[in-house]
């Protein structure tokens, strides 16, 4: 959450609730709604580490609100973020360990494990398909997020298929 | 797109207890003999599809899933085993009888569309209706309605070769559904389409399913398979798993876990 908030502030000063709304509008309902409390906590931390600065603004009928802006250090942190490439996605290592160790424990059958895991992925894929049809089609960012999740799941399913092919041959 | 599309005639979309399965297979076996070792494509398959069900068969290429679909549509004959359509055993059916069933009771779409290349889009769709004895006027009405439903207005006079892959598959879908068959078989219908075409086919199959169309789909694409409400995993000629997708949020994180951006 830290760097996306910095990125939103690169455009200009904003207060916490505005940032929450901006994030929702950008990502659509595909992304789990950011919790406003979490946003305020993160903004507090960013301020403490000197990446943003807040300014109290008086409001007549409501408590003061704090408008934040990016500091030079914040802009630098954001620049560094864009310099770096992101980590590769990783194989679901918990499932892999279960699968690899199953024969030694005598507690689970490898093919049954694969089938169970596949059912779960397929159900999640189904939820994602539904989300893609209910989500606003014009929100490209949101649609791309859903499509990315689906392609990752597709890869995981392909890999389960490979596991099943290999492990069934051994039987 | 606002027109009401044809629903399968006089069919109840919800499966009813006591009603014969739209499709039932028992002990299906098929071995291909060619050069080299015999290929055991289908090795003892039992399967029952209820009215209104949308079943996807997935598995690696070469697992025999397309052969299975061809057996179910009477395009190939099993070495042993039986198939029932609406409770009627097809054991004694020859090629001619299966051809009639494929006009009346079973619509099929293929990976490479298999449209008649020297017939226009309109003629491709109307032909099976005319062959089934529908009047030309009625065939034209059905064709117009289906093409409109599938977003192909204005393409009636085009030849298949002038259309994109996605459009050709939509024409093939119209042709398969023009006689309101109780059962639609689809063999890798998105296999030669890009990601956008795949989404389009997925959406259309879901829509026909929601209106009560019974569908059996063979695909290696999990995105397409997840549109079905039942997924059969096919490995090495056998059913390895047969799972109802309930769409209920899975335990654990489910989609929010998949979509969540890390701190």
Rg estimate of chain B, integer Å: 19 Å
Major sheet: arrangement of strands of chain A: 1-3-2
β-sheet strand percentage of chain B? 15-25%
End-to-end distance of chain B: 43 Å
Question: Mean of residue pLDDT of chain A?
Answer: 90
CATH architecture group name of the largest domain in chain A: Orthogonal Bundle
User: What pair of chains forms the biggest interface?
Assistant: A-B, 38 and 33 residues
**What count of helical segments of chain B does DSSP give?**
8
What's the helical proportion of residues of chain A?
55-70%
The first-level CATH class of the largest domain in chain A is given as: Mainly Alpha
Structure in a nutshell:
Chain A contains seven helices and three strands, in the order H-E-H-H-E-E-H-H-H-H. By secondary structure, chain A is mainly α.
Describe the SSE topology.
The complex is a heterodimer of chains A (171) and B (263).
Chain A (H helix, E strand, L loop, with lengths): L1 H8 L4 E2 H12 L8 H13 L3 E6 L7 E6 L1 H12 L9 H13 L4 H25 L5 H31 L1
Antiparallel strand pairs in A: 1-3, 2-3
Helix pairs in contact in A: 2-3, 5-6, 6-7
Chain B lengths: L22 E10 L6 E11 L4 E5 L6 H8 L7 E6 L2 E2 L5 H10 L1 E4 L11 H11 L4 H14 L15 H13 L5 E5 L7 H16 L3 E5 L3 H4 L4 E6 L2 E7 L9 H6 L4
Parallel strand pairs in B: 3-8, 3-9, 6-7, 7-8
Antiparallel strand pairs in B: 1-2, 1-4, 4-5, 9-10
In words, what does this structure look like?
The complex is a heterodimer of chains A (171) and B (263). Chain A is mainly α. Helix content of chain A is 67%, strand content 8%. Chain A is built from seven helices and three strands. Chain A has a three-stranded antiparallel beta sheet. Chain B is of the alpha/beta class. Chain B is built from eight helices and ten strands. In chain B, the strands form two sheets. In chain B, strands 6-7-8-3-9-10 form a six-stranded mixed beta sheet, sandwiched between helices. Chain B has a four-stranded antiparallel beta sheet with strand order 2-1-4-5, covered by helices on one side. In chain B, a hairpin with a 2-residue loop joins strand 4 (80-85) and strand 5. In chain B, helix 3 packs across helix 4, helix 3 runs parallel beside helix 5 and helix 5 runs parallel beside helix 6. Chain B is globular. Mean pLDDT of chain B is 88; it is low at 1-5 and 7-15. Classes of the chains: A mainly alpha (171), B alpha/beta (263).
């Amino acid at each position: 959450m830290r760097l996306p908030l910095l990125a939103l502030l690169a455009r200009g000063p904003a207060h916490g609730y505005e940032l929450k709304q901006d994030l929702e509008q950008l990502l659509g309902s595909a992304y789990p709604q950011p919790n406003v409390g979490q946003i305020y906590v993160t903004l507090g931390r960013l301020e403490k580490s000197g990446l943003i600065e807040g300014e109290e603004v008086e409001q007549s009928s409501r408590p003061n609100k704090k408008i934040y802006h990016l500091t030079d250090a914040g802009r630098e942190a954001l620049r560094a973020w864009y310099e770096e490439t992101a980590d590769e996605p990783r194989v679901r290592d918990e499932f892999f360990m279960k699968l690899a160790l199953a024969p030694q424990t005598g507690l689970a059958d490898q093919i049954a494990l694969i089938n169970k895991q596949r059912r779960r992925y397929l159900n999640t894929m189904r939820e994602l398909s539904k989300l893609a049809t209910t989500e606003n089609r014009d929100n490209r960012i949101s649609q791309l997020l859903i499509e990315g999740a689906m392609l990752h799941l597709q890869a995981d399913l392909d890999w389960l298929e490979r596991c099943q092919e290999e492990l069934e041959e051994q039987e | 797109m606002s027109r009401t599309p044809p629903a399968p005639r006089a069919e109840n979309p919800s499966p009813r207890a006591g009603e014969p399965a739209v499709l039932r297979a028992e002990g299906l076996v098929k071995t291909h003999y060619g050069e080299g070792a015999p290929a055991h494509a289908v090795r003892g398959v039992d399967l029952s599809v209820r009215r209104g069900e949308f079943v996807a068969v997935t598995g690696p290429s070469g697992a025999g899933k397309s052969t299975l679909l061809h057996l179910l549509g009477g395009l190939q004959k099993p070495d042993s085993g039986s198939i029932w359509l609406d409770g009627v055993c097809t054991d004694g059916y020859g090629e001619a009888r299966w051809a009639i069933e494929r006009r009346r009771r079973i619509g099929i779409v293929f990976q490479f569309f298999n449209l008649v290349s020297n017939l226009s889009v309109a003629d491709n769709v109307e032909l099976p209706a005319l062959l089934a004895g529908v009047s030309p006027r009625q065939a034209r009405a059905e064709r117009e309605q289906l093409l409109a439903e599938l977003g192909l207005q204005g393409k009636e006079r085009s030849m298949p070769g002038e259309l994109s892959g996605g459009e050709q598959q939509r024409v093939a879908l119209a042709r398969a559904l023009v006689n309101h068959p109780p059962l639609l078989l689809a063999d890798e219908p998105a296999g030669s389409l890009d990601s956008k075409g795949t989404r389009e086919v997925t959406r259309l199959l879901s829509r026909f399913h929601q209106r009560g169309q019974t569908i059996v789909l063979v695909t290696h694409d999990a995105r397409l398979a997840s549109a079905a409400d039942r997924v059969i995993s096919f490995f090495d000629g056998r059913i390895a798993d047969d799972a109802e997708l309930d769409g209920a949020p899975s335990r654990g994180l489910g989609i929010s876990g998949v979509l969540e951006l890390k701190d």
